TrEMBL record:
GO BP: fatty acid biosynthetic process; malonyl-CoA biosynthetic process
Domain CoA carboxyltransferase C-terminal: 31-292
Subunit structure: Acetyl-CoA carboxylase is a heterohexamer composed of biotin carboxyl carrier protein (AccB), biotin carboxylase (AccC) and two subunits each of ACCase subunit alpha (AccA) and ACCase subunit beta (AccD).
Keyword Cell division belongs to the record: no
One GO MF term: ATP binding
This enzyme's EC code(s): 2.1.3.15
Main location: cytoplasm
Pathway per the UniProt entry: Lipid metabolism; malonyl-CoA biosynthesis; malonyl-CoA from acetyl-CoA: step 1/1
Protein name according to UniProt: Acetyl-coenzyme A carboxylase carboxyl transferase subunit alpha
Classification of source organism: Bacteria, Bacillati, Bacillota, Tissierellia, Tissierellales
Cellular component, GO, one term: acetyl-CoA carboxylase complex
Subcellular location: Cytoplasm
Species annotation: Gottschalkia acidurici (strain ATCC 7906 / DSM 604 / BCRC 14475 / CIP 104303 / KCTC 5404 / NCIMB 10678 / 9a) (Clostridium acidurici)
Amino acid sequence: MSNSLDFEKPIVELEDKIREIETFAKESDVDLSGEIEILRNKVKDMKKNVYENLSPWQKVKIARYQDRPTTLQYIEYILDDFIEFHGDRLFADDLSIVGGVGLLEGMPVTVIGHQKGNDTKENIKRNFGMPHPEGYRKALRLMKQAEKFKRPIITLINTSGAYCGIGAEERGQGEAIATNLLEMSKLKVPVIAIIIGEGGSGGALALGVGDKVAMLEHSIYSVISPEGLASILWKDSNLAKDASEVMKLTSEDLLRLKIIDDIIKEPSGGAHRDVELMSKNIKDYILESISELTNQDIEQLLTKRYEKIRSIGEFEER
């Protein structure tokens, strides 16, 4: 992997070397299986040492990694017969949010998610996964449609934040996000929200109100980016690494703080290493959550969602 993350380069180089030896052994008809097995075990140990001891900044890098699977990639593995819907019926179709209806083991579900690109051209097309107000209004339109037809809703979150350009502000960016928060809290169908990469600020939260909120193991979720926090606190965005250490933005931090409900395990090395396995883990989690949530009546579901939202955060009464 030529554009590998800096801290995994030794692993990637050794894996490349193993492939070279395997090719040489095959072409030369030489048995090097013993040597190859030793190197594979070394790679396994290196992965365990690296990926079980990731710093918050390293997790930020994995969450933002260009090759990290996108919403549409997961949909391809998880759903059958997916039909994407477009437009907010008010202004335009925002390509940084995708959504539609598909079959999950034969059950109709609505899936909505932020969509980044895996290269510069796609990222420009998708506005780097930063939605305009029409993106959030499209998402809300699909959620209300799902409520009408009693379909569970699944959101896949991966954005550095909502787009803050002049046009977005003129068209009511803050109102669009606030309306989504209000309406999602009242939806009369199960809602499952999963942070699959970077969950940034209100741009992420606008798809993040759910009965179940989960994060992939190496994703992040925060009210501001590390660069933004460093700029505000220390007037220097280059101190982003230091900021990430104090922000409590990893999945382990947020589970401990009871902001999320679950962590979905990633393949060794991250979701980009095995999209099929990662998709299976996500699908299993969704199926288990839907089974649990559909056994509750609507009033019970809404009450628990309300209590969940109200209980977020640590505070003292005086």
